[in-house]
Each structure stands twice: as C-alpha cells, then as structure tokens.
Amino acid sequence: MAYSNPILVVDDSELALEMGKDLLDECGFKSIATLDPLTVEGHLRNSPVEIMLLDMLMPNKNGLEVIRDIRAIEPELGRQIMIFVITGLQDRQMALEALRAGAYFYMTKPLRKEALLPSLQSCIAQLEQSRDPATLDASRALRDRISAARTGSSAAEIQLRQPEIPNAYPHPIMIVGGEDPRTGAMAIPMLTKGYHVLECPRSDNMLVLFGSHPVDIVVLNVRLPLEPMSRICEQLRSASLAVRRRLSLIVLVEPGQEGWQKQLQSMGATMCMPRPVDEPALLQTVDWAARRALGL
C-alpha cells in the first residue's frame, strides 16, 4: 500500500523512539520522531502528518493531554489525526481513557511488525476512503437520514440504501476465532464492502480487544460446546454493558446446533447463523447490525 505522508512517533525514551522509527522503516513508511510532546503541534502544522504513534507516560505532558490538544486544533489543521496509543500493560486504564478521548487504536510495547503493519494498513485505507467524494456524500446522506428520523419523517424518507452503511459506519467489526482458516476469508467481503475488521485469533484475549476498541458488532466464530459458548456470550454482554455499548453479537453455529439459539440469545447473542456461512446473508446481517449501532 503506497502511503507517502510521514508518521509521527512521540516517545520520551530514545530507545523506544529508535525502535519505532526502525519498525516503520521496515514496514515501508516514512517517519518523523520527537522526544518532546510539546513539539507535537509544530510537527502537525509543518508536516502532512495524519498518523501518529504516541507514548502515554511522558514528562511535561502526558499522552492524554496531547490527544485533547490535537482534537482541539484539528478543525484548524483541516484534517483528522489518527492516533495510535502505545503503552505498557500496566498503563491499560490510561489507554482506555485515551480511546474515549479520541485515540484511534491502542497497542502494547514492544511493538511488533505483525501487529502494527495490518493496523496501519487498515487505518490508511480508512483515510483514503474518507477522501473519496462518494464516501463524503454517503456520510452526509446518512447524517441527513438520521436527522430526519429524529424529527419524525416518514419511513420512506429515511430509508437507507445498502452501499451507504459501510462508508458511514466508523467502528471495527470484531471477528473472534481467527484460528479457523475461514475467518480470514470471512473478513475479505467485509473489507471489500468498506468495513474495518478487527480479527481476534483467540477468544481468551477478546475482552482486551473489545475494551480497547469501539466495537459494537462481534462475529463469534469459535467451535465450542454450548456451555463455554454461552459463557463467552455472557462475558461480551457484560463488557458491552460496562462501557454502555449496544452490542450486536452474531454467533456462527454448526449444522444441527440451531437449537442452541434460545440459550445463546438468553446469554447475550443477538443472532445465530449456521455454517457454512452464506456470504450475502452475513453481509446483510452486518449491515443490519451497523444500522442498529447507529440508532436506525
């Protein structure tokens, strides 16, 4: 993916700064680095930076303050800055606060290419899509329809066309169960249609990813007996209530397990779909969930 703008790296540790620059270079990106968070605004004004890797615990100004300052000057800059929060595991609470303040993504140190590169590629795809006039028109149309719905317009006036939803829906779709080789294939039609996909290979770290990303839609693609599957549904439901999200949980079940639906729904599942997954049906369900998350 060709991307020519520099990525700004901010960290008060010289070693971490050099490692970040080297990793970006290995991934094929240009970078600008600074040890001092007080210089961030100057870099943003003087360089076409759109993406930033930001350490959270720094002297003079912490990462949370930097994020708030950036959000305040974005209208003047005329562009959105996609901020990747970089933190140690012990700083997770501050990272969650940063995400609420407007950070795009949160990652733990040390950075690894296999984690950073796909996240940057997804971020760049979103930036490129946001510059597409069709995307802007779709987002404006969706906002108009939301406004019309809230002022009592007729259903015909606010009907949404399928292609508008991905462009206007900003949050990632989380697919849990990446150990299944078909999970990657499942993500492709969603990415092709314009959704951002967050893959979670193992269910034992799904709550960390769920808590650190603004996820409203989860596709649960794990092969487990009914009771462990129910516990996962309950955990996701509890996590969504804790962060006040309206979760749509789509659970994939094996043929013959359709009878599980009632119990899984009682534990938090929104819908059960049988394997093998029908791609158009899955996309239609994700579109429905996106509308639901947007309050339509």
Protein model, in words:
This protein is of the alpha/beta class and 296 residues long. It has twelve helices and ten strands. The model is unreliable at 145-164 (pLDDT under 50).
What keywords describe this structure?
10 strands, 296 residues, five-stranded parallel sheet, alpha/beta, 12 helices
Topology:
Elements (H helix, E strand, L loop, with lengths): L6 E4 L3 H14 L3 E4 L5 H7 L4 E5 L7 H15 L4 E6 L4 H10 L3 E4 L4 H18 L2 H18 L13 H5 L3 E5 L4 H13 L2 E5 L5 H7 L4 E4 L5 H17 L5 E6 L7 H6 L4 E4 L4 H15 L3
Helix pairs in contact: 2-3, 3-4
Summarize the structure.
With 296 residues, this protein is an alpha/beta fold. Helices cover 49% and strands 16% of the residues.
